[in-house]
Amino acid sequence: MMKNPRDIIVKPVISEKSTDLLADNKYTFWVNRAANKVEIRQAIEKLFDVSVEKVYTLNVKGRKKRVRQFIGKTPDRKKAIVKLAEGEKIEIFEGL
Description:
By secondary structure, the chain is α+β, with helices and mostly antiparallel strands. It contains three helices and six strands; from the N terminus they run αβαβαββββ.
């Protein structure tokens, strides 16, 4: 049973590094930490109606943050970089 694609894809990553990857037709998303590459591929293809060529994933560890005497930590997250087939594009990144 396939999970809901909106549960797998959390949100797109909008940063300087991710916008540089758009030139290579690679799009970056924060994804559910339990999702694997196959689930990420299926979710992107279903949500945006594109064909995915390759999926790269990496786990991003949370950093320690401090506000006065309180020490906290940002959450651990998972990032997916998705390479689309030639000629494909995702519209939400058009303004970048």
